[in-house]
């Protein structure tokens, strides 16, 4: 499939594949933290992903020359979007089901981003947006309260893990806000490589104390296979596909596609991990997703986006 200058189908295919990989990452990472400390798991995933991106950057013809200025700019953003986000991401997985994270992180990140733009006066607060934010907050409250209902396995650990996921969502929102300005004008592959590389190095530093206590000989082949998948798919490939899609569509459209992550994350968590939801969590998730869509899109898609969709 060839990407068309006017957008076409290809950009949406790239974004859909990206969201499928992001959703599967929750399930795959849950398998990994079952045998490895969460900081070691994060280090191995992004260390591997960074190496792959470095190779791609080196072999790609016509790339710009190395710049310390670009490295510092992208690296600072990477400390938030790669290091801090994934530290909380894997920590949350060690405490709570992957299915919880696949709802909390991709849905609340755009909501928190929208709240920031409204609070700073960079976006307008329409009725649809205010209603959407209020609905998203109510849905999040219902989701957390719903953890204790049914037979989905309520525990203090699960509740703590969900709040850790929330911290991860805040980090991803901060990363999205900062990267739009800091990484503007930088070639996508180079920006992704620098950010991922610096974030991975920070994860290595944090994980070093845990390496000695890790029982490497007991790590199963399944866990190593999942680590390879995480480094290649949800890290290297997904980020590159996301930027390819973002070149042809607006940030609004790209943000909307994030709401597909809970679908893929829930399906893979139920099928491969046999995790479950309470009725309260289902209700909270639905309310949160609907509210988030309204908050981000203000209840509509721009005329330009409608034309792209119907072409």
Explain this structure.
- There is one protein chain.
- The chain is an all-alpha fold.
- 49% of the residues are buried.
- The chain is 77% helix and 0% strand.
- It has one domain (10-310).
- The protein has twelve helices and no strands.
- α1 runs antiparallel to α8, α3 (68-95) packs across α7 (188-211) and α4 (98-119) packs antiparallel against α10.
Highlighted features:
311 residues, mainly alpha
Radius of gyration: 19 Å
Number of domains: 1
State the helicity in percent bands.
over 70%
Report the structural category.
mainly alpha
- Overall average pLDDT: 80
Q: Tally the helices: what do you get?
A: 12
Distance between the termini: 16 Å
Helix/strand order: HHHHHHHHHHHH
Could you give a short account of the major beta sheet? none
Total beta strand runs = 0
């Amino acid at each position: 499939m060839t990407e068309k200058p006017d957008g076409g189908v290809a950009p949406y295919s790239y974004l859909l594949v990206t969201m499928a990989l992001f959703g599967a990452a929750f399930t795959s990472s849950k398998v990994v933290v079952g045998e490895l400390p969460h900081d070691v798991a994060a280090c191995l995933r992004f260390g591997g992903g960074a190496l792959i991106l470095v190779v791609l950057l080196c072999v790609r013809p016509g790339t710009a020359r190395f710049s310390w200025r670009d490295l510092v700019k992208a690296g600072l953003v990477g400390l938030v979007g790669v290091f801090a986000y994934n530290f909380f991401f894997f920590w949350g997985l060690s405490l709570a089901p992957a299915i919880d994270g696949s709802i909390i992180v991709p849905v609340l990140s755009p909501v928190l981003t929208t709240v920031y733009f409204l609070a700073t006066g960079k976006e307008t607060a329409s009725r649809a947006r205010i209603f959407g934010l209020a609905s998203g907050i109510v849905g999040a409250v219902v989701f957390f309260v719903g953890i204790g209902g049914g037979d989905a396995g309520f525990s203090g650990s699960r509740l703590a893990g969900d709040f850790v996921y929330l911290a991860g969502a805040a980090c991803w929102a901060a990363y999205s806000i900062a990267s739009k300005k800091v990484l503007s004008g930088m070639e996508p592959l180079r920006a992704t490589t620098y950010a991922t590389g610096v974030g991975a190095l920070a994860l290595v530093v944090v994980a070093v104390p845990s390496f000695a206590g890790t029982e490497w000989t007991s790590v199963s082949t399944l866990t190593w296979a999942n680590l390879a998948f995480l480094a290649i798919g949800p890290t290297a490939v997904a980020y590159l596909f996301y930027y390819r899609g973002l070149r042809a569509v607006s940030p609004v459209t790209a943000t909307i596609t994030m709401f597909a992550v809970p679908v893929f994350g829930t399906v893979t968590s139920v099928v491969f991990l046999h995790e479950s939801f309470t009725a309260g969590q289902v209700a909270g998730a639905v309310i949160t997703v609907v509210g988030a869509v309204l908050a981000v899109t203000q209840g509509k898609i721009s005329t330009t986006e409608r034309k792209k969709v119907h072409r």
